[in-house]
Structure formats: C-alpha cells, structure tokens
Amino acid sequence: MTGFVLRRLAQMVVVLFAVSVLTFLIFNVIPNGDPASRMAGKSPTESQVEAIRAEWGFDESLPVQYVKTMEQVLGGSAISYFTQLNVREEIARGLPATLSLAVGAAILWMTMGIALGLLGALRAGRLSDRLITFFALAGVSLPVFWLGALMAYYLGFKAGWFPNGGYVPFTEDPLDWAYHLVLPCTALAILFIGFYSRVLRSSVLDTMSEDFVRTARAKGLGERQVLVRHVLRNSMIPIVTLWGLDFGAVVAGGAILTETVFDLQGVGQYAAESVGQLDVPPVLAVTLFGAFFIVVLNTVVDIVYAALDPRIRITA
Amino acid sequence: MALAFGVLFVVLVLGALAAPLWASSVADREPNRTNETGKIEVDGKQVDVVSLEGVPIGPQWRGEYFLGADANGRDVMVRLLYGARNSLLIGLAAALLTTILATIVGLVAGYFGRWVDAVARSALDVIWAFPVILLGVALGTSLAVGGLRIGPFELEAGSMAISVLVIAVVYVPYMARPIRGEVLALREREFVEAARAQGVGPLRMMAGELLPNLTSTIIVFAPLMVANAVLLEAALSFLGVGVVPPDPSWGNMIDAGVDKLVTAPHLAIAPGLMLVLTVLALNVFGDGVRDAFDPRSDSAWGTRRI
Asked: Do B126 and A194 lie within an 8 Å CB cutoff?
C-alpha cells in the first residue's frame, strides 16, 4: 500500500508540473503578440507594460519566464491589472460560494441519478425506461447558461418563488444561504442527472448478469436485499469515479456559466467576468488552480479506492 | 426516433443554408443592419421598431421581423439563421478536426506503443485535467487579442478559425483515448500479424489495415462530438470569447438577450430553443447510431458536461 501511495504521489507531481507548463504555454507562448501588453488588459499605458514585462520576466528566456510566472501566481503576488485586486485573494473570496454550489448540486445529481438509473435498469426496454433515456438526453442537451437564466428570471424574478440570484454566506444566515442555492444547484444538477442515470443503468445491467447475484438469489435472499446489498453496491464504482472528476471540475471553476447567470460571486464567475474584460492574470490563475485541484483530488480518489479495493493496488 | 431527430438536424442545417434567401426575399433585411429609429406597419398603424424606452418590437409572424427585433432594431429571425450558419459551421468544423486529430493520435500511440504511447498518453492526461469549459475559456482569452501564428500559419484574432481550433483541441482526449484502446486490441489480431509478415510498413498498416476497423467507433463518436462542439461554441460566445459581435452566433445572441428578459424575452428564448433543438437532435441521433453500431458502449455518451 505505501508503495502504491508513493508511486501515485510521484505521478501527481509530474502531472502538476505538466499542467503548469501547459498553462504557461497557453497564456505566454502560443498566442501571437506581446504577452506583457496582453496581461495589461484593454488600455494599458507604456510604463505599465514595461513594469509587467520586468515583473513577469517577459524579456528573458522561456524557462526564466516560466519560473517567474509561477512565482507570480502561486506566490500570490499576481494582481489583475484591470481591477488592481490581488488575484489569489479574489479566488479565496469566491471559494465558499463555489463549494456550496458544488456540494449542493452533487448531492442532487447523485441521488436523482442513482434513483433514475436504477429505475431504468429494472424496467429496461419498457416505456418508463425509454422516457428516462429521452429526458436524460434532453438534460445533457440543455445549455446551462440559457436554462439558468430562464429559471432565474421566471421562477425567481417573475414568480418570486426564489431569489433572483446572488449568494448569502452560510455564516450570515443558513436558511437564506440554502434558499439562494436552490435554483443554481438544480440547474447545474440537471446537466449531470441524465448522464449519471445512464451510466448507472448500464452498470446495474452488467452487474445483474454476474454470478454472485445468481448465488445471492440462490441462497434465498430477498430481491430487495440482492438489489441493494449486491447489485447497487457493485454498480457504484463507475459513478463514484465520475463523481470525483465532475465534483472537482465544478469546484475548480468549471461552473463558470451557472455561477454567472445566478450571480453567485464564486470562482467561476470571477473567471467569467475577467474573460469579458480579457483580463489575463485572473483567468490564468483560475485555470492553474483549477487544474491543480483536479489533479490532487483525482490522486486522493485513487488512493481511497486502493484502500477499499486491493485489486487496484496491483493493476495500477 | 433517432432517425426523426437526424432529419430534424438536416432541416436545421438546410435552414442555415437558406439564411441569405430568407434575408433577401422574405425579410428584406441584412443580419447586421441596425434600425433603431425605423417604423413598421402593424394592423394599419405605424409602430416603432425600437420604442423610445429601448424596447424592441416582438414577433410579427410574417416576412419582416418574423421573430421581432433586437435592441438595435436588427431582425431576430435573420440573425438567428445567420447565427445558425456560424454556430453549425464552427461546430461541424471543430468536430471534424477533433476526429482527425484524435484518430491520428490514437493510431500512432496505439500502433507504436512504448515511449510514443507513453508521451501521447501523458499529453492527453494533462489536457484531461482541465475542465472543458475552463480550457476553452483559457485558450479563447489568450488568443482573443493577437491571434495565433505557428510557422507559416497565421490565424487572425477574432476569426472563426480560432474558435474551431480551440474547441477541437479541447475535445481531442475524449475521443483519442477510446481510439487508442481499440488500436491496442486490434494490434494483437491475426490480420495485423499477417500484414506485418507481408512487410507492410507502419503508414500503410495504420491507414490500410487499422483505420478501416476503427470506422464504427468514429461513426459512433461523430454526432456526439458535433453536439458537444456546438454547445461549447455557444458557451464561449456567451462568455465573449467566441464569435465576435456584431456577427451573430446563438451564444452571443443569448448573451445579449439575457439582459433583456424583462422587456423582450424573445431575444433569449429564440436562439436558446434553436441551440437546444440542435444539440438534442444530435444527441438522440447519436444515441441511435450507437445502438446500431456498438450497443454495448456507453462511453461516448455526453462526453463531458459544460
């Protein structure tokens, strides 16, 4: 087990390094034109650009540039030249809202996805199964920025059932916090429910044809017991893997669109607003921190898996 | 059902192709021509296209301003059709490019194995580590000002080619991984061994022996890739790093319409419905294709949500 953990951690370090290099390439090397003036935003002064060039090392060799860029971002001294605000502090400020959204949506999409997936598998081929499949397809086909905007307007602003966007910190008023999260979490979860139900459905169908299920039935277990204790438990592995990826992506700023249309003031919205101004440092920082977070989370998920299932330690 | 939705997609494409026809002979308006102070006749009365309070006229359900006007007095129906051209063109081109890149990467990595495979796999893993939308946004933002130049190739900032390239690159790992896996399995089969015994070189092996056996995988992925590409294009345009206004795309039309939901809901609803219909048509059609070609796999389905 220790060997596996060490190997996995070493792998993680390599991927983190590669991720940082790719981020660096995307922002500083691939695009055409002067990186310093791109950093500076829409209407920079000459002296500003000069200062940025020195600070980020744009007049030096690429390896030095890379090191200086990483120092700026990871060291926490990078600022947005548009708003003059510290980028890392802004990201930290948006994190509670983003985490709340991710947790709420994840609970919703997991429970609904499992329920619908199980139902679809038990009724495979019947009308209810086909209906679930169609709604699942419809769910993944809905653009969240459109659905969210319509929900915020019609259910929030017009009907007055929910707040028309915004975020209230949990520490301020837990009830209002939850109330503000209902619509965004639902909108985001709709994207995932269809996909999860679909994956679980095929996983359950696969598991049901396994020998141990027949054995469980043969030894006289009730159908309910077989389903919950044997089939469902063994069908959850692909879902949990996916969950690790998707939850990570949402926390890492992947909910840019949802956060923006519901005005949640999270990390994603911070990135989205910076994109609108072509404000590069915040976008760079969110991208880098986001990818870092996902890589670390995946490593943790893998290690937890290996602890639970000894087979993985050998094959990985 | 899948076939019906496939036909729906073809109809949408034909509609996009017919955009100039509608613009010139039915609506008589250009997509980017503004008309803030004009008037049109409604029920025998002269009505402002955009009222003094800035509220554009709603759907007329006939020739000019069929779906109403936007805040600048432009014809929404005409913009919708021209937007369809941009959105679909970018989506189709990006999906095609993804397919080509992913097939090449998958073939080369799977066939050569060893260090080539290791390098390709880690490159794909690194791209995989980024959330789709974040990577698209990052590339879109960094290329939005100066464009791109690689050797003799130059893509101007704001051109649609940039969107195509960004979207194509983002989705490569999602398709290259399964193709690589397939090639690994094919490589062990007798027909490959037979070809190798006859002295077939790597290039002919990949193009002539392996590629034909990948067609069903590629066909299963293609419609879903187009659906994902259209959706990502709309998201990027919505955020302001896709099609540059005043040129229309469904994404930037929704972006402009969301602020006006109170007074003119048709501005956001019309392009959104087009987008949903297109993506749904492709997804349902793709699901049917998968059932026909490869009923056991679910992997291509809804690759990654944005």
From this structure: no
Nearest C-alpha neighbor of A260 from the set A251, A252, A269: A269
Element (H, E) at A74: helix A62-74
Subunit contact B130:A261, Cβ cutoff 8 A:
no
Question: CA A16, B170, B213: angle at the middle one, nearest 5?
Answer: 110
Q: Please, how many CA atoms are within 13 Å of residue A266, restricted to the half-sphere of its CB?
A: 31
Q: Considering only residues 129 to 188 of chain B, which have any Cβ-Cβ distance to chain A shorter than 8 Å?
A: 129-135, 137-149, 154, 157
How big is the A-B interface in CB pairs under 8 Å? 172
What pLDDT is attached to residue B300? 46
In whole angstroms, what is the distance from residue A294 CA to residue B296 CA? 29
Does A271 sit within 8 Å of B134, measured CB to CB?
Answer: yes
Q: Which residues, including other chains, have CB under 8 Å from residue B179's CB and lie 6 or more apart?
A: B102, B103, B105, B106, B107, B110, B214, B217, B218
CB contact under 8 A, B134 and A246: no
Which residue of chain A comes nearest to B227, CA vs CA? A141
Note the ipTM here.
Answer: 0.86
Q: Which of B300, B157, B166, B176 is nearest to B229 (CA)?
A: B166
Q: Which residues of chain A have pLDDT under 70?
A: 310-316
Taking the CA of residue B46 as centre, how many other CA atoms within 13 Å lie in the half-sphere pointing to its CB? 3
Residues of A in contact with B306 (CB under 8 A): 144, 254, 257
B300 within 8 A of B178, measured Cβ to Cβ: yes
Strand, coil or helix: A79: strand
Buried b (16+ CB within 10 A) or exposed e, B188-219: eeeebeebeeeeeeeeebbeebbeeebeebbb
Cβ count within 10 A of residue A297? 17
Tell me the pLDDT tens digit for each residue of B94-148. 999 999 999 999 999 988 878 888 888 888 888 888 888 888 888 888 887 777 7
Evaluate if residue B302 carries a pLDDT over 50.
no
| Cα separation, B98 vs B225, whole angstroms | 8
Contact B240 A276 (CB under 8 A): yes
Beta bridge partners of B154: B149
pLDDT, tens digit (0-9, with 9 covering 90-100), for A89-146: 899 999 999 999 999 999 999 999 989 988 888 887 788 888 888 888 888 888 889 9
Confidence of residue B92 (pLDDT cuts 50, 70, 90): very high
Residue B48 pairs in a beta bridge with B39
Measured between CA atoms, the residue of chain B closest to residue A205 is: B296
Distance from A1 to chain B by nearest Cα, in Å?
Answer: 24
Cβ atoms of B53 and B61 within 8 Å: the answer is: no
Length of chain A: 316
DSSP string, A193-246: HHHHHHHHHHHHHHHHTSHHHHHHHHTT--HHHIIIIIIIHHHHHHHHHHHHHH
Please list every residue in chain B whose beta carbon sits closer than 8 Å to the beta carbon of residue A140: 283, 302, 305
In chain A, what residues touch B287 (CB-CB under 8 Å)? 133, 137
Rounded Cα–Cα distance for residues A38 and B162 (Å): 17
Question: Does residue B126 belong to the interface with chain A, where contact is any CB pair within 8 Å?
Answer: yes
Burial (Cβ within 10 Å: 0-12, 13-18, ≥19) of residue B44: exposed
> Which candidate from A19, A33, A143 shows the least CB-CB separation from B126?
A19
Token pair, residue B134, equals: 């974040």
